[in-house]
Design a protein that fits this description.
This protein is an alpha+beta fold. It has helices spanning 25-31, 88-98, 105-121, 129-135, 148-154; strands at 8-14, 19-23, 48-57, 63-73, 79-82. The chain folds into two domains: 1-83 and 123-159, no CATH class; 85-121. It is 30% helix and 22% strand.
Length: 165
């Protein structure tokens, strides 16, 4: 994870300021433990639950995808736990299916079901949605078939209709 992708914006929910703040790429990489020494640290972060959104932008700056993350941080700002919404046996099943060369239809359906649980478990709380509308980059330009609509519809944001009434 070298460099700063030009098309990625990381947002972090700041509960104290009730706002989504942009997190520099280097901070995100270090927090995720991809930096030197593999340390997972978010400088200045309060202990407790934290929400992040990885916003991927298209070539024209439009929102293309949003990947939600929820973590628990220790009192010293270190990553304690990431959420996937799965129990131990479900997580094992999810990883088992992931390694199958030729999954059955049932395996694929179960994999999607388990993945959906992980997605839902990482969604930010409802009280963060209004501030998110002001902070999310490229939202107005999001294309109709873009992957970002999976996230947006999950938090209650609908695409404007282009049909005449």
């Amino acid at each position: 994870m070298k460099g700063t992708p030009e098309n990625t914006v990381i947002l972090h929910w700041d509960e104290c300021h009730t706002a989504w703040m942009e997190l520099p790429w280097r901070e995100w990489v270090r927090f995720r433990g991809f930096g030197r020494g593999g340390l997972s640290l978010l400088a200045g972060a309060e202990a407790g639950e934290h929400y992040f959104l990885v916003c991927v932008l298209g070539d024209g700056g439009e929102l293309a995808n949003v990947i939600p993350h929820r973590y628990v941080l220790s009192t010293d700002g270190r990553l304690v736990h990431g959420f996937d919404g799965l129990g131990a046996s479900e997580r094992e099943e999810y990883y088992r299916i992931q390694t199958l060369l030729l999954p059955t239809i049932e395996d694929s359906e179960r994999y999607n079901e388990l993945g959906s649980c992980g997605f839902t478990a990482n969604l930010p709380p409802l009280h963060t949605v209004q501030p998110l509308l002001r902070a999310m980059p490229g939202l107005a330009g999001a294309q109709g078939g873009a992957a970002c609509w999976d996230f947006l519809s999950a938090i209650g944001i609908c695409r404007a209709s282009t049909r005449a009434n």
